[in-house]
Every structure is written in C-alpha cells, then in structure tokens.
Amino acid sequence: MSYLNIDSIKDRTYDAIVIGSGISGGWAAKELCEKGLKTLVLERGRDVQHVTDYPTANKHPWEFEHRGQVPLEIRNQYPNGRASFMREETMHWALKPGEQPFVEEQPFQWTRGYHVGGKSLLWARQTQRWSDFDFEGPARDGFATDWPIRYADIAPWYSHVEKFAGISGNKDGLPELPDGEFLPPIELSCIEKHFQEAITKNYKDRHVIQGRCAHITDPQQIHYDQGRAKCQHRSLCNRGCPFGGYFSSNASTLPWAAKTGNMTLRPHSVVHSIIFDEKKKRASGVRVVNANTSEMIEFYAKIIFVNGSALNSNLILLNSISSRFPNGLGNDSGTLGKYIAWHNYRGRINAEYEGYYDKMTDGKNPSNAYIPRFRNLHKQESDFLRGYATGIGGGRGRLTRQAEIGEELKDALLHPQLGNWNISAWMMGETVPIESNHVRLDPNLKDPYGIPQLVTSVKWTENDDKMVKDYLEQLTEMFTLAGFKNIRGADTHANPGSDIHEMGGIRMGKDPKTSMLNEWNQVHSCKNVFVTDGACMTSTGTQNPSLTYMAITARAADYAVKQLKKRKL
Ligand SMILES: Cc1cc2nc3c(=O)[nH]c(=O)nc-3n(C[C@H](O)[C@H](O)[C@H](O)COP(=O)(O)OP(=O)(O)OC[C@H]3O[C@@H](n4cnc5c(N)ncnc54)[C@H](O)[C@@H]3O)c2cc1C
Prior knowledge:
Blueprint: H1 6-11, E1 13-19, H2 23-34, E2 39-42, H3 72-75, E3 103-104, H4 132-135, H5 137-141, H6 151-165, E4 167-168, E5 182-183, H7 190-202, E6 209-210, H8 221-225, H9 253-259, E7 263-266, E8 269-277, E9 282-290, E10 296-306, H10 310-318, E11 338-341, E12 343-344, E13 347-353, E14 369-371, E15 388-398, H11 407-414, E16 418-430, E17 438-446, E18 452-457, H12 462-481, E19 485-491, E20 503-505, E21 522-523, E22 526-531, H13 546-565
Parallel strand pairs: 1-2, 1-10, 2-7, 3-18, 4-5, 10-22
Antiparallel strand pairs: 6-14, 8-9, 9-10, 11-20, 12-16, 13-16, 13-19, 14-15, 15-16, 17-18, 21-22
Helix pairs in contact: 2-9, 2-13, 6-13
Bound molecules: flavin-adenine dinucleotide.
Flavin-adenine dinucleotide (FAD) binds next to helix 2, strand 8, helix 10 and helix 13.
C-alpha cells in the first residue's frame, strides 16, 4: 500500500457495509442509516429507480408486441429460462444470460433477482408471522439444532417492520399464526368464504383465513411519508408498482435510507468475499468486482451485514478464505453451507364448484386465502415430521366464445358467459434441514467475475414424500366436504428451489460447535459480521419467510448499533 492511497482508503471506508439491496438488505440499510451510520450498500445488479424504472407498469395488454410471450430465440438464450419472469412484461427482471452459472449436482431451481431491490420486486408479498410452534420445532422434534431465539424475542420487531411496510390482514386469534399490526384485510371471494365456512363447520383445528400480505389497504402517515399510496388492485405487481401499493425495497426502505443522507448505494458491485484482518481478528471490509470493468476494489467498515439472499450469502462466506478461516469465514463448526432447506410446494389441487351462478369476480385480487399449518402442531400425529400451510385462490372462469367481434363482442362484454367457480390450493411444507443437503464451491469452475461457482447438492427426503401424500389426502377430504367437484390433486415432483424460499447454510444456534450465528445473527467467531437473510434460518417453518428476515434484520441492526456505541464491536 502506498501513502498516496491513504485518501482513497478513507473514501472507501464507511461505518457499515450492507451486501445486497433486496428485502433484507433494504431493511439493514434503512435501520443502520436511520441510526446514523454511514452505510455503503453494495448491489451486484443495475440500479432500479422506483417508478421511472418500471417500463411496463402502465402498458395495456395490446401494447406488448408478442402479447406477453417471449420469442423463442430470446428465450433460448437463457439457460435459466425455466425460472420465472420470462414474460414480455417482466423480462426486465430476468437474469442476464451467463450472469452466474452454477453446478447442479442435484437439480435445483434457483430464482434470482439481480438488480437494486432484488426479489422485493418479484415476490408474491405474503407475510405471515412465525409462532413458537416454529421456533420450538427443532428442539421439540429433535432435528437440526435449537433456535437461539423464541417468538417473544422477535415479536416487537415484527410489529416494527409491519407498521412501516404496511401489512394487510385480519386478526384471527390463532396461536399458530400470531396476529400483527394489520391494515384492513383484502376480502375473500365468495368461493373462498364458502370454503372457509365448510372448514369451520367440519374441523376444530383448521382455519381458512385471508393471507396476510404486504399491500397498503388503508395508507397511514408513515406510508405517505414514504411516498406510497393505496394498492389499486391492479395485480400487475411484478412489473413494478408506481403507486408503491406493495412493499418493495425500491418503494420503501431504500428511499427512506437515502433520505437520511447516510446511504451510498453502489450498483454493479459484485461482492467477491469478506476481508478478515488476522491481527485485529475481525472483518475489515469486502472485496468487490466492478461488474462493468472487472476491476477489483476493496471497501472497509466497522460492521458488515450479509444480505445477498440465502445461497449467495453462503457463497460469499465460503469464498472468504483466510489463514484463520481456511474453510470459509466463521466456519469453525464445519456447518457452513450445510443444512440447506426450503419449502415443499409439490402438492397442488384444483376443483370446481357448481353454484353461486349469480355472482362473479369484480376487480382483481393481489392476495390469496391461507390455511395455517394444522398437522403435528400440538402433538406428533402422522408418520412424517412437521407440517404444511396452504395457499388458496378461487375465481370464476369465463367460457371462451368464438368470433367475438363487433356487436358480438359488445354483447359478450355485457353478458359474459361464465363457467363454474374454480378453486385451487398449493402446499407450503416445511422441509427438515439435514447435513447432506448442502452447497459448496466448485474447486475449478469460475463465474464471469472470477468467483467460484456454487455447487447445489440438495434433494427431497422420504419425509417430504410422505408430507405430499398426506397433503393431497387432507385437501381432497376438505374439498369434498365443501362440496367441490372435479377434484384433481397432483404431486408436481418439482425440483427443490422452485418454491423460491431457500434457507439455511449459515444457521443460527446456541452452540458455536454446531452453528454459525448467535442469537443476534453475529458470526460466532467474527462478531462484526451479521448474516440476516434466509441463510440464517435454523429451520424453515411453513410461513412465507421474508417478513421474518425483515424482523430479524431490524433486530440485528439495532443490536449492532448499540454494540458499536458501547465500543464492543
Ligand atoms: C416469484 C416469487 C414469489 C415470492 N413470494 C414470496 C411471498 O409471498 N412471501 C415471502 O415471504 N417471500 C416470497 N418470495 C421470496 C422472497 O422474494 C425472498 O425471500 C426475499 O426476497 C429474500 O430477501 P433477501 O434480501 O434475502 O434476497 P433478495 O431480495 O433476493 O436480495 C438479494 C440482493 O443481493 C444481491 N446480491 C446477491 N449476491 C450479491 C453479491 N455477491 N454482491 C452484491 N450483491 C449481491 C442481489 O442482486 C439482490 O439484489 C418470493 C420469491 C419469488 C421469486
């Protein structure tokens, strides 16, 4: 290092570095900046400005050249084309061809959103709290390792993030799915209400409720202060919402962090690894590859929040090699990259209802109904561990009519021929983390930035197969009791990852010998590094996980700043 570089080093030194600007990184940025820390947010993808960078947000269906389809010659350029968002209206979110190859030792469908905002622009916005049935699961059922926190530790942080993000829902009073700080719920359709009544009549322990979701149904001052407005029920969310009607980092946390004057957001910055200072026995910064020039540059900070999304955070720690940590940063336990788990979405079931012919759907519904987990909740009652939640959507199909043009078209619009009501349900099962389900670095293959490729080696277990079977049986029974006809259930046998809720690999735990992170999400053996995305999850629960990442992140950021102030970090 030459003396001439001293100023440059100063320019590249911050109080905090946040890796990733998606759901969890956005929260880390907001909380750290609000608490006065000069924070550098490193994002591998391009910038996405709220509103102005949603090119298709206000387009009508007829304005798309290919009516929403992506031409085959373009589609074929994308090896990850089987992933979502290969639609004309959302192609701007698709991963660039060749951006990040990885090795599927076992098939794994890895959906990524590499741009400012990450998958907060792609998600389905379902936001359910965990309960102690989830936090106590590993200890009770004897798998994985015990969580170092319980519901009481995180409950105030759920409230904190819910109020800011804007979560709509109903207070259902269910211990397995605690209530939160809700805006008014989105209404259930008549077929969903019908199902709700049938389930209430026939079961004591099963409940059909409106899914809690991150949509503003009654804006509060805090939402206006963010420049956000009421959800318009356009259901065009994945194009980017110019109203900020749903929560995304771009509409909410990142502009809030920017307003403090403390955030520096650096797109096109692919984090290669974390630098460990062997003398000070702490992380001193990160190495970044400039995605446009391939130049390597270092940034420094007192604390580092790792929020690259679960598998990328694993990759970054695995690639952070030093004499102290030859097997990846903080990997004294040997658990780094292991105990990867996800959600089991393999069970799907559809049916029809012959009735409510005097009713039709009016407008669009950006949410869905939900059945919280009921299996193995109070006691072990089946031949598989843990359980599943269920998402439910119902609507009335339109029968196609031929030759609709001119007078015929007008008539069809005024007197639509509607078919039966349709209802469909999808499974969200907990997978049990096991050591052999892991990710690691390929020793030879590199990505275009010179970073080792990730090897994904995860597969379904017998527990998952049994759970799918039970799900299909139970939902068939429930659909039958509700009087539904033409019930069709199937195991999709989809590959792991297709549920888009991958978790683990850098798990929290009480014991540094069997886990990577303590109860504050600090790496046990490198306390100024915090991992607060899905990688930290000790087990998966059945709830859509992002609300929990938000709450965990805000909690960890609060702790980090307090520790910094006490000069303990
Ligand atoms: C179709 C779909 C529907 C979903 N629906 C729901 C739902 O209803 N409810 C729910 O709870 N969850 C849902 N999810 C999952 C949810 O999107 C993720 O749980 C959430 O986005 C994870 O937040 P994150 O911060 O960990 O990662 P992300 O939001 O993915 O953000 C990670 C960011 O880090 C950046 N990054 C990665 N690696 C690096 C690097 N090396 N250097 C710099 N930057 C890096 C990425 O570019 C990205 O911007 C859904 C996901 C998809 C795809």
